[in-house]
Amino acid sequence: MKIRSVKHNNRKKVFEVVTSSKTFVFPFSKADPAPMVADPVTELSVDADTGRETFSYVLASGRLGTVHVEQVLEYNQDPSYLRDLLLYRLTLEAQRQIATSPLSKREVVRRLGTSATQLYRLLDQTNYRKSVDQLLALLQVLDCDVDLVVRARTA
Fold it and tell me: With contact defined as beta carbons under 8 Å apart, do 96 and 48 qualify?
């Protein structure tokens, strides 16, 4: 996700980050170094060098800070970001399981009822167009149990 623009709101003590789909806030307290009343933001810009995925700021003291869009999405608990993170973690686990499985890749393809190309797409951690269902089916074929744990967030 790319950042279109960013501005700072000293009254609310947040950065307001505008992406292609939404506007998010990111509190000063989560940034490092954190802007303060005695050390305010003097410069703020979106970094084109990182593909507009980060923004940088300079404080009055001269200290420099950078925030990645993933930090903003994680803080705001963006559902699409959380889905992609879940897909990524499941994909890495599927890669580990297939590396240690006694089943050949051809047998895994046969049991999934799909093609070898589709298996490689499922095992590609940069592919986010797959579904959680497909990864769960793959892990089932690899004789894995997947448990979803929901717990209250701690402070």
Answer: no
